[in-house]
């Protein structure tokens, strides 16, 4: 199992502690609060993820073939989802990300990640991470 | 009495559906009529001459006659079927209205009545004028008249009811004033046909565009009314089979309206379903529909007003069906997600009306959109879910 898959499994375990859909979102709201402070200087249009109704900023940096990510959102739940995405992809090697099958993210069972809604900021983030890993 | 029993969606989904401005649910009779066409007499219209083809043609044309009477048009030739409001506006924008120097729209238009004009190279002050509003989003007739004075012989394209804020425009007055300045008027009835009785001769517009799917009919069907005196002047924007009288290698001679406008095979089942939807409305009657919706709308507004930090953008005066609001300090997306998890279907975002959102300096709103099949229980469930969502987000 890759590090990315391990991270997904850990989040899955955390999300599955309750059958109550709303409790999952309580958890997502809580982890959003743990998101590292975002550098205000990076709150620029170039870091805005396309296709978001709420705003999502994502700053990807590649150094020594490792992708580091900084991100945030102005929406509370999306912030939690940003935390989840960063937990999965931050500090992974480019090769790991390139080899990753994004469909595995569906196992998290989060409709914001699964739904093919063109407004979805979370999907925009994932797309951007995959693009950056591919194109450098 | 609740009309939900006639709509199978409510029994099957368990959802509190408050998004009728996006699309309405379909009564069983509409679903049955589509099924009946596909299972019993599926054939093309206006072409072949065998039994099922004739039945399909008769049923299809029955909808035209029904819709003519339904909106009080003078003749059935004034009714042309389309895919919906977006296609109807694009049709007129790219044919009849294209030659006009100036297009006049209101501030509350849906993108469907903005983007087609931009695609023609028009921009604000350059072939496109926008009428502002007064208190409570009331159409600014003073500004409208000034624009008409400066731009006589224009083409006016305005919404009847705002999809985001539920504001009802006085389209009869708009038409009267526009005609004084030799302008033509298209009224976007996307949000009105499901809620208000339409008397096209009383409104006296030149074009009226309608959506089937927002009026309890299937998706992919709509119609445009074109006033009789314009039927010969309006050119079709697409041509092909079934729209022609004769074709040689040298030339094509088109049929008269409505057939010259309905090229290619139409959404036959959808059009037939449309009639069933209109029949359903007639059975209930607009008087009851308006009465139910008015009570629900007032109740919704009053219940929302009790919640701390609710921000409204208009009162309930001259509004119908659609209610937009925000919660101070919260992004609408967060509320939308948590309502969805509680099986409440509402829409959050810019509602395809980005210019008015920008003018109000909003990223979007939370919109509740009612239809006559909703009841007080729906609103109570929505308010309880909203309170729970706010509790989670504000903790």
How would you characterize the overall build of this protein?
The complex is a heterodimer of chains A (136) and B (395). Chain A contains six helices and three strands. With 136 residues, chain A is an alpha+beta fold. Chain A has one domain (3-135): Sufe protein. Chain: A (Alpha-Beta Complex). Chain A has a three-stranded antiparallel beta sheet with strand order 1-2-3. In chain A, helix 3 (76-89) runs parallel beside helix 6 (121-135). Chain B has helices spanning 8-13, 28-40, 51-70, 85-94, 115-118, 141-150, 171-180, 200-203, 268-284, 286-305, 332-341, 354-359, 376-394, and strands at residues 16-17, 79-82, 103-106, 123-124, 127-131, 155-159, 184-188, 207-211, 222-226, 244-247, 252-254, 310-312, 322-327, 344-345, 347-349, 365-369. Chain B has an eight-stranded mixed beta sheet, with helices on both faces. In chain B, strands 12-13-16-15 form a four-stranded antiparallel beta sheet, with helices on one face. In chain B, helix 3 (51-70) crosses helix 9 (268-284). Classes of the chains: A alpha+beta (136), B alpha/beta (395). Chains A and B meet through helix 2 and helix 3 of A and helix 11 and helix 13 of B.
Could you outline the blueprint of secondary structure elements for this entry?
The complex is a heterodimer of chains A (136) and B (395).
Chain A lengths: L2 H13 L5 H13 L22 E8 L2 E8 L2 H14 L2 E2 H6 L11 H4 L6 H15 L1
Antiparallel strand pairs in A: 1-2, 2-3
Helix pairs in contact in A: 1-3, 2-3, 3-6
Chain B lengths: L7 H6 L2 E2 L10 H13 L10 H20 L8 E4 L2 H10 L8 E4 L8 H4 L4 E2 L2 E5 L9 H10 L4 E5 L11 H10 L3 E5 L11 H4 L3 E5 L10 E5 L17 E4 L4 E3 L13 H17 L1 H20 L4 E3 L9 E6 L4 H10 L2 E2 L1 E3 L4 H6 L5 E5 L6 H19 L1
Parallel strand pairs in B: 1-14, 3-5, 3-6, 4-5, 6-7, 7-8
Antiparallel strand pairs in B: 2-9, 8-9, 10-11, 12-13, 13-16, 15-16
Helix pairs in contact in B: 2-9, 3-9, 10-13, 11-13
């Amino acid at each position: 199992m890759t590090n990315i898959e391990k991270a997904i499994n850990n989040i899955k375990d955390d999300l599955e502690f309750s059958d109550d859909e709303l409790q999952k979102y309580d958890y997502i709201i809580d982890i959003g609060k743990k998101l590292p402070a975002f550098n205000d200087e990076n709150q620029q249009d170039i870091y805005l993820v396309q296709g978001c109704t709420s705003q999502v900023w994502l700053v990807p940096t590649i150094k020594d073939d490792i992708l580091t990510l900084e991100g945030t959102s102005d929406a509370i739940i999306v912030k939690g989802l940003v935390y989840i995405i960063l937990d999965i992809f931050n500090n992974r090697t480019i090769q790991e990300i390139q080899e990753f099958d994004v469909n595995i993210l569906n196992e998290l069972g989060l409709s914001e990640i699964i739904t093919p809604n063109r407004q979805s900021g979370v999907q925009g983030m994932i797309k951007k991470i995959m693009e950056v890993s591919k194109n450098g | 009495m609740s009309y939900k029993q006639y709509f199978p969606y409510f029994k099957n989904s368990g959802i509190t559906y408050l998004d009728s401005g996006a699309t309405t649910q379909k009564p069983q009779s509409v679903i049955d009529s589509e099924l009946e066409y596909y299972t019993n007499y599926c054939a093309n219209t206006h072409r072949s001459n065998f039994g099922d083809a004739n039945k399909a043609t008769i049923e299809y044309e029955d909808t035209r006659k029904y819709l003519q009477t339904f909106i009080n048009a003078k003749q059935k030739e004034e009714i042309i079927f389309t895919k919906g409001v977006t296609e109807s506006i694009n049709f007129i924008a790219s044919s009849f209205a294209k030659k006009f120097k100036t297009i006049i729209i209101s501030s509350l238009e849906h993108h469907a009545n903005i983007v087609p004009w931009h695609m023609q190279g028009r921009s604000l002050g350059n072939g496109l004028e926008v009428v502002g509003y007064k208190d409570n989003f009331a159409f600014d007739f003073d500004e409208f008249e000034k624009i008409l004075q400066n731009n006589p012989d224009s083409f006016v394209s305005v919404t009847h009811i705002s999809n985001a804020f539920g504001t009802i425009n006085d389209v009869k007055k708009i038409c009267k004033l526009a005609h004084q300045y030799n302008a033509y008027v298209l009224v976007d009835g996307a949000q009105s046909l499901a809620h208000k009785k339409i008397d096209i001769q009383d409104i006296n517009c030149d074009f009226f565009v309608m959506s089937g799917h927002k009026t309890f009919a299937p998706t992919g069907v709509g119609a445009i009314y074109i006033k009789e005196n314009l039927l010969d002047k309006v050119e079709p924007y697409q041509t092909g089979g079934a729209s022609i009288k004769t074709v040689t290698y040298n030339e094509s001679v088109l049929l008269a309206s409505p057939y010259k406008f309905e090229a290619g095979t139409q959404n036959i089942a959808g059009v037939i379903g449309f009639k069933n939807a209109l029949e359903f409305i007639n059975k209930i009657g607009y008087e009851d529909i308006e009465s139910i919706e008015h009570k629900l709308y007032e109740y919704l507004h009053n219940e929302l007003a009790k919640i701390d930090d609710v921000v409204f953008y208009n009162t309930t005066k001259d509004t119908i069906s659609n209610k937009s609001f925000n919660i101070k300090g919260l992004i609408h997306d967060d509320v939308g997600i948590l309502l969805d998890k509680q099986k409440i279907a509402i829409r959050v975002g810019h509602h395809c009306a980005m210019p008015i959102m920008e003018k109000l300096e909003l990223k979007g709103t939370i919109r509740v959109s009612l239809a006559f099949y909703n009841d007080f229980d729906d609103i109570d469930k929505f308010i309880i879910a909203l309170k729970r969502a706010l509790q989670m987000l504000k903790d």
